[in-house]
Amino acid sequence: MNAGMPLLGAIAFSTCSLGALYGGWRFFVAYRITGSRLLLAAAALSVVAPLAMIALAGAAGSGTVIQAGFPAVGAVAGAGFGVSRSRRLAPLTAGLWLPSAVAQWRDGDGGPLTDLLGTLLGEDGAAHASRSAALVNALAEPLGIPASETDDLVIAALLHGLSAGLNGGGRCEPGTAQYAATARMVQRVRSGKKAAGIILLLAERWDGTGPGGLIAEEIPVGTRAVAAAEAFDRASRQGLAHARKWIREESGGAFDPVVVDELMHLTRPVAVA
């Protein structure tokens, strides 16, 4: 840099450049999670912007270019984060905030993940995810699932509809492609591999007629629990009585009869004295 460049200008430019480079790293991590080309372009721009300003300053032999340009570099560093809470840019939102939200949930603070799901899935989709997770959490102990594995089941239930949010919808109807897309994202989140494995197999059926042909106990018990819980909650949109009747009809077909029995017990109507 030119020796005559004011010290404050140099400090400001350096700070903004570091911010842009950090933003570039965050955007690249987000790209790895979602595969969005928008995020890859943002990562490249965040890295190129400060380097271009330095190159221009060197060619001009003056710090004037840098002094004039550091606000633009700062804008590059912050613009993505400023718009990333918009549902219209769901891949950006998920890629940037999902890793930290999951980490905070595991540390006991579920607020950020709840807020993120609300942004991505809308009120209805986020409520479905929350209710599914509550059912799974209640099913874990009676099904003999160790407490050390329950968190992964709950995370899987919370995130199973994530790809629907990225595609502009709030509900995740059963489908191998949607579950596979969600699993690919979740497995790239730190400590997300077990939850991703659960999500990947959610389209399997107890009777072996699912896409992978897994049958009965070949399907992990955690996956069986999440599949039944989220399907039960979807069916309950037409009323609890309908959901109970429907899940009982699917016992031994789509769902593990033992899991269905536990669901029936958990959701039984309470008699009012």
Q: Any idea of the CATH topology of the largest domain?
A: Hypothetical protein af1432
End-to-end distance, in Å? 82 Å
**Percent of residues in beta strands:** under 5%
CATH superfamily caption of the largest domain = Hypothetical protein af1432
What is the ordering of alpha helices and beta strands? HHHHHHHHHHHH
What is the percent of helical residues? 55-70%
- The value of Rg in angstroms is 24 Å
Largest sheet: none
CATH class of the largest domain: Mainly Alpha
The total count of strands amounts to 0
How many distinct domains? 2
Assign the structural class, choosing from mainly alpha, mainly beta, alpha/beta, alpha+beta, or little secondary structure: mainly alpha
Number of H/I helices: 12
Describe the structure.
It is a single chain. With 273 residues, the chain is an all-alpha fold. The chain folds into 2 domains: 8-83, no CATH class; 90-266, Hypothetical protein af1432 (Orthogonal Bundle). Helix content is 70%, strand content 0%. Helix 5 (111-140) packs across helix 6, helix 5 (111-140) packs across helix 10 (221-235) and helix 10 crosses helix 11 (240-249). The longest helix is centred in the middle third of the chain and has 30 residues, at 111-140. The mean pLDDT is 80.
How do you describe this structure in short?
Helices cover 70% and strands 0% of the residues. With 273 residues, it is an all-alpha fold.
Give structural attributes:
12 helices, 273 residues, single chain, mainly alpha, Hypothetical protein af1432, 70% helix
List the helices and strands and how they pair.
Blueprint: H1 7-34, H2 37-60, H3 64-83, H4 90-106, H5 111-140, H6 147-159, H7 162-166, H8 176-186, H9 193-200, H10 221-235, H11 240-249, H12 257-266
Helix pairs in contact: 1-2, 1-3, 1-4, 2-3, 4-5, 5-6, 5-10, 6-9, 6-10, 8-9, 10-11
